[in-house]
Amino acid sequence: MKKWIIFHLIIVFTTSLKAASLSGFFSYCTFDIPDNKPYLETYLTVTGGSVSFIPINDSQHQGQIEVIMQIRSGDKVVHFDKYNLKSPVVTDLSSIPDFIDQQRIKLDTGAYQLELTIRDKNTNEKESTIKQIIRINYPTDTISISDIELIDSYKKVETANNFTKSGYELIPFVNTSMFYPKEITNLKFYTEIYRSDKITPAEDYLVRYYISNNESRKVLENFIVSSKQKPQPVNAILGDIPISNLYSGNYNLCIEVRNKKNQLLAYKQMFFQRSNAESKPMITADLLATDINNTFVSLLNNKDTLIEYIACLYPISSSMEVETGESIIQRSDLHSMQQYIYYFWSKRNPNDPGKAFNDYKIEVQKAKESFSTQINKGYETDRGRVFLQYGPPNIISDNKDEAGSYPYEVWQYYKLKEQSNRKFVFAAKERSSNEFKLLHSDAIGEINDPNWQLKLLGSQQFGTSLDPVKPINIYGNHSENNYTNPH
Question: Are 2 and 147 in contact (CB under 8 A)?
Answer without folding.
Answer: yes
